[in-house]
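User: I'm preparing a small set of examples for a lab meeting where we compare how different chains pack in three dimensions. I only have the primary sequence for this one, and I'd like the structure in token form so I can line it up with the others. Please keep the answer compact; I'll paste it straight into my notes.
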Amino acid sequence: MDVKTWTYIVVGLSFALYIGIAIWSRATSTKEFYVAGGNVSPISNGMATAADWMSAASFISMAGMIAFAGYGGSVFLMGWTGGYVLLALMLAPYMRKYGKFTVPEFIGERFYSKTARVVAVICLIIVSITYVIGQMKGVGVAFSRFLETDYNTGLYVGMGIVFFYAVLGGMKGITYTQIAQYVVLIFAYTVPAVFISLKLTGNPIPQLGLGGSTADGTPLLQKLDQVIQDLGFNEYTTSKDGSTLNMFVYTLTLMIGTAGLPHVIIRFFTVPKVSDARLSAGWALIFIAILYTTAPAVAAMARLNLTETVQTGPVGQAASNLEYDKRPEWFKNWEKTGLLKFEDKNGDGRIQYYNDAGESFKQQGWNGNELVTVDKDIIVLANPEIANLPGWVIALVVAGGLAAALSTAAGLLLAISSAISHDLLKGIMRPDISEKQELTASRFAMVCAIAVAGYFGLNPPDFAAGTVAIAFGLAASSIFPVLMMGIFSKKMNRQGAVAGMVAGMSVTLLYVFQHKGILFIPGTSFLGSMDANWFLGITPNAFGAVGALVNFAVAFAVSKTADEAPQGVQDLVESIRIPSKD
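Assistant: Understood. Below is the structure token output for the 582-residue chain.
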């Protein structure tokens, strides 16, 4: 069978599984809709949390970012995994002990303020919408390439699947669907990696293959360094992109942003006991580590395969460069998506792929890098095709990418709908509505959230398209600080919490929007041009940690101007922090 047939079969079966689970796990109460009834086992919750957290950015984009950034790409591995450890140790057990449904509910009650709750809802929606755009876009790209549909059709299909199991089952349906999605995505990620590691190094374990040698006895990483350096690119095993400060701040942003993601935090509300929250965090870390320790191997092997396939001979020997008319089928397929583009700049009918900055290449008759577009997001999806793996393996990767995108999209959409129905409607506007009315409102809010996410997926704004890291920065600057202060600062008052959230979110949005040219404010020229690194060389995607510092500073400064939190609230905070025996 061809790849398209295999893809329809594998993707179709996985979607049928998700829909079947949604029907079986239909939510009948608000508790089931918001927290899956609160009786999910630690192992199951760990698996669902892993799927919820490992989005299309982890499955599709991370290996691509590492493949082209080399050592510098480790910022994503360190930031995202470190952030999860921070979340598991510093926030999850305490949030579970508090025993509420949503993050804004915790913030509203801890800071005894409806205003704080509303501000938290606004921050949550901004973070979640920014994040979900990347997930919906990933669904559209995967469908458009492998099912040979247009981008919009692929996105509509993905929206329909999420609509069915998220609206019908709420957190209960999402939880059990995410368990299935984790199984699909982890097999989809590791199986091709095993095949490719065997082909390149003879070792079936990708993590060991990364440190192994190729068939000619050359260490894999040494060979990769040599191949790409011959083409004028930076050495793979040395980071030369960005300052040390920017890398540190970027890592910190990803860490505290991860710990502040509301759709991940609410997963710890679904287990019966506080001790189960700790156990599920440990299980989730194990499940996440399977993919995250495989990603560096996938990145290095994919970069080597791509480069050697296109640049088939030593640099300077133009006769051995790949003839465009004889390009492989995978090359033609990805050209159709626009994510891979070739331009014959010297008219020789061959593909010259190299670092355009090198003057020596021009002396050889090359008029510029002719692969004018190599989108980083194609690395994981195209890697099995480049390596000539069986069609069912390629189809499995597609199903995995879709599972990763859909699982995270569902979690984000639930966080948005819960904030609207539970925190705004039930918590502030109409506290007297019945549970049945609230459940109906929750489903309606979910439908609206899916529609909004779909709109932005079809019309992604420039500031968010392809920049999932911005969502981490926004979470880092707004939600993480207020949760930390809410748990570990007994005297922090509502005035400080609200001011901190507003300041942190505002300064981060200003920094990002100014960079993207969406916003220009007179007097901010000290930030520099939109094409340059700004404040101390810190890039916009890394600015969340600075926004978090602003949040903390403003919160503590403002809190000094008003009375400290009431004694009852301080006693509540103290009770949350006392270790529980359950």
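A couple of notes for your slides: The chain has one domain: 3-305+386-577. The radius of gyration is 24 Å.

User: Perfect, thanks.
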